[in-house]
Amino acid sequence: MHKQRAIKYNFDEIIPRRQTNSIKWDAGDLLKKFGITERFDEDSIPLFVADMDFGCPQPVLDALKQRVNQKMFGYTTHLTDPEYFEAIQNWFRNRQQWEIKKKEIVYSPGTVFALSAAIKAFTMPGDKVIIQRPVYSPFTRVIEENKRIVANNELINNDGYYTIDFDDLSNKANEPGTKMMFLCSPHNPVGRIWQTDELRRIVEICQSNNIILISDEIHGDLIRNNETFYPVAPISDYPNIIVCTAINKTFNLAGLHCSNIIIRDEELQNTYQNEIGMQFPSPFSISALIAAYKQGEEWLDQLKVYIDENFDFLERFLFENMPKVRFRKPEGTYIGWMDFSAYGLSPKEVHNRIYNKANVVLEDGALFGNKSAHFQRICLPTPRSIIQKAMIRIADQF
Q1: pTM
Q2: N or C terminus: which one in the chain shows less Cβ crowding within 10 Å?
Q3: 3-state secondary structure of 372
Q4: What separation in angstroms does the CA of 323 have from each of 48, 280, 314?
Q5: What is the pLDDT of residue 4?
Q6: Distances, alpha carbon 162 to alpha carbons 82, 152, 156, 222, 372, in Å
């Protein structure tokens, strides 16, 4: 068998992204409209959105070029392509020791879309959905936009290491009208990888209260090299578990809108499928997924080393230049969670110094929960020179 030539990827390369329809680099007016920042110009350094400033794996680029050369982009279906499903199954078997059956895989154009659809399919207006703040803000949005109620099981902050308040979780799960739980695993933004004992307790609480557990595991491939990620589905045979997976975070393919939702219970899947109707990936999504999962491992392994080094840089920079910032290197994700509370400044002033004076765009902690107003979220999948420039600017303001 012909062996693929090894490729050495250069993650230090600066790939210009302005004027490419990038929400990260081009959507300043939109960011101002939504209150993310008051300032956005050609000198701004955006580190707020969870996508990468790295080129995608070469096999993915080659597959997309091959698709372009077919010259037609009509309606497509992945359902007749066994390679699509085999690529997903083999990836999770090899990387996470998780056996997924073909019949359990449901395509979705996005993870947030999938969460919203699940709410509509399995709950009624006025029902409660458990989340664990500080957490990815669309969790709150899709619950409230669908006229459901947030039941917040606040995580416990132990000097930057977050744990679950299981007594509170049990109480929330036992409340009348609680029908669903969103689990973020690894957790965005605090970076925890939930261990098997924690996952078992979560599942046991959900099972004893007949709660549907939806686990967002789209950051599951992006973990530190000394860590192990544990998917929740193999932990238990509880049928009411739905898992969200995606190529978008792992391979920087968010613009292709390709998530795959794993639903092993047939009745649950039928109800979900009826809610979302016919959803099919684009021809580019099909080609990209197959190439990424079959040939993207080399790129990912190199990427993880680079991101680990970015976190090492950030940790060292804060220690040497901004020691009042509390920061703990995350176990998973490429997201940093920085606590500025020791400066004694208001959250508004922290924001002003970073966004308006330093001209660096992060994400305010208040977006993730009202107990996190002094925090800032920073996304680090970008060339180190950009991170260094941004952090020097921020340090100059403190």
Answers
A1: 0.96
A2: N
A3: helix
A4: 22, 49, 12
A5: 60
A6: 41, 15, 5, 18, 13
Distances 51 to 13, 123, 363 between C-alpha atoms, Å: 16, 31, 14
Burial class (CB in 10 A: 0-12, 13-18, 19+), 305: exposed
CB 236 within 8 A of CB 200: yes
Q: What is the pLDDT of residue 2?
A: 45
For the beta carbon of residue 34, count every other beta carbon within 10 angstroms. 10
CA 213 to chain centre: 17
CA 165 and chain centroid, separation: 22
Return the pLDDT at 79.
Answer: 87
Long-range (24+ apart) CB contacts under 8 A made by 370-376 are: 371/133, 371/134, 371/154, 372/133, 372/134, 373/347, 374/339, 374/340, 374/341, 374/347, 374/350, 375/134, 375/189, 375/337, 375/338, 375/339, 375/340, 376/338, 376/340, 376/350
Torsion angle defined by CA atoms of residues 112, 117, 118 and 120, in that order, rounded to the nearest 10 degrees: 130
Alpha carbons 144 and 348: distance in angstroms, whole number: 25
Among 51, 110, 90, smallest CA distance to 293 is for 90
Residues 6+ apart with CB under 8 A from 67: 283, 284, 287
pLDDT score for 1: 40
Residues in the chain predicted with pLDDT less than 50, given as ranges, are: 1-2
CB atoms within 10 A of CB 41: 7
- Give the integer Cα–Cα distance in Å for 398 and 396: 6
Q: Kindly state the tokens that stand for 290.
A: 């197959």
Residue where the block lists tokens 């050495």: 8
Give residues with Cβ within 8 angstroms of 29, minimum separation 6. 40
Measured between alpha carbons, how far is 201 from 161 in angstroms, rounded to an integer? 19
- What does the pLDDT read at residue 334? 98
Question: What CA–CA distance (Å, rounded) separates 286 from 253?
Answer: 12
Q: Using only C-alpha atoms, what is the Rg of the chain? A: 21
């009745």: which residue's tokens? 267
Domains of the chain, each with CATH number or no CATH: 28-57+297-396 (3.90.1150.10), 71-294 (3.40.640.10)
Neighbours of 251 (CB within 10 A): 25
Q: Tell how strand 149-152 and strand 128-131 pair up.
A: parallel
